[in-house]
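Thread amino acids onto this structure.
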């Protein structure tokens, strides 16, 4: 009899725990991710693969909170709770968020390649293929007609190369005018007629209610392939640029060190701040990194670098945390290093 009671109690508790995991709270839980080496991800055609050390991007893991993970985050260092509205844009679905992060990664890749190739005195040019839909404004004409990720290549009879050209064309229309949009979704070409209308927050501005990103193809010599299908967001830009540059040059700038870091990068090689720096420092420390590059934000007291230093002290890391404002800052630091 007692065995049956114990068994039923355990079964009931197990069922309750399983049921609780399906309850979704209006938060995301973020935590330290991992440090992933970039050499297997970056493939420069006939590039140098002679690294004695390594370059790694750092990540933050996240997931929708349930009552169990919510409580877990409350009692563990470097596990953070983020309200949904702080994590995603208003009315943005999980699918749209994921697509936006992938587009941000693609833009980051392009900037990283451009920076590294120009620094290595290699050929860089572009071809244009239209514009990507990055966001759709609720209540505007494009809602329910276009989706995030659609690639628009023609409006009426006009082909477009940049987002600026699209905005100028549509902005010259009158309220109520209709335009025919030719676009591609998941490899299938489609066409839809959409009226233009004023924006609620800016009535003098006419549009269909979408944010756009120019879809341009970067053409470089030698060719390059980046295997980043499962990585989203722009924060790996700096580290990708360093790995690409290292494969373009005979000299190994890693010099035997395990090097991690984070930071966005633009085509001019300027490094920008990112979110989750504390968790990325923890992830890099656990992975045994020797050096970590952190965005300096031109010396701001609240910069990523300052936060990284504080966290480094708390966890007693042996990593050397280095402030950078540009790709050249990181490159200069590495070129002055002695071989490990």
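Threaded sequence (340 positions):
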């Amino acid at each position: 009899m007692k065995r049956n009671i114990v068994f039923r109690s355990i079964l009931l508790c197990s069922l309750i725990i399983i049921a609780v995991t399906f309850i979704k709270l209006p938060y995301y839980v973020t935590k330290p991710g991992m440090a992933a080496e970039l050499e297997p991800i970056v493939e420069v055609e006939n590039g140098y693969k002679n690294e004695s050390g390594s370059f790694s991007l750092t990540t933050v893991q996240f997931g929708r909170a349930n009552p169990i993970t919510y409580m877990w985050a409350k009692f563990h260092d470097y596990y953070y709770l983020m309200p949904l509205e702080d994590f995603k844009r208003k009315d943005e679905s999980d699918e749209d968020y994921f697509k936006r992060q992938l587009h941000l990664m693609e833009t980051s890749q392009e900037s990283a390649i451009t920076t590294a190739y120009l620094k290595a005195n290699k050929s860089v040019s572009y071809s244009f293929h239209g514009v990507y839909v990055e966001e759709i404004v609720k209540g505007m004409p494009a809602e329910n007609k276009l989706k995030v990720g659609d690639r628009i290549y023609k409006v009426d009879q006009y082909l477009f190369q940049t987002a600026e050209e699209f905005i100028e064309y549509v902005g010259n229309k009158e309220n109520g005018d209709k335009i025919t949009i030719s676009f591609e979704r998941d490899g299938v070409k489609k066409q839809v007629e959409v009226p233009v209308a004023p924006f609620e927050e800016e009535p003098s501005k006419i549009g269909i209610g979408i944010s756009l990103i120019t879809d341009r193809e970067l053409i470089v010599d030698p060719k390059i392939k980046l295997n980043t299908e499962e990585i989203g967001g722009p924060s790996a830009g700096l580290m990708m640029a360093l790995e690409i540059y290292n494969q373009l040059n005979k000299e190994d700038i890693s010099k035997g060190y395990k090097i991690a870091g984070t930071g966005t990068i633009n085509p001019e090689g300027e490094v920008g701040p990112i979110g989750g720096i504390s968790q990325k420092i923890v992830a890099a420390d656990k992975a045994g990194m020797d050096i970590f590059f952190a965005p300096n934000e031109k010396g701001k007291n609240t910069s990523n670098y300052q936060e990284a230093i504080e966290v480094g002290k708390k966890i007693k890391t042996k990593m050397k945390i280095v402030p950078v404002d540009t790709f050249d800052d990181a490159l200069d630091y590495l070129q002055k290093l002695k071989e490990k």
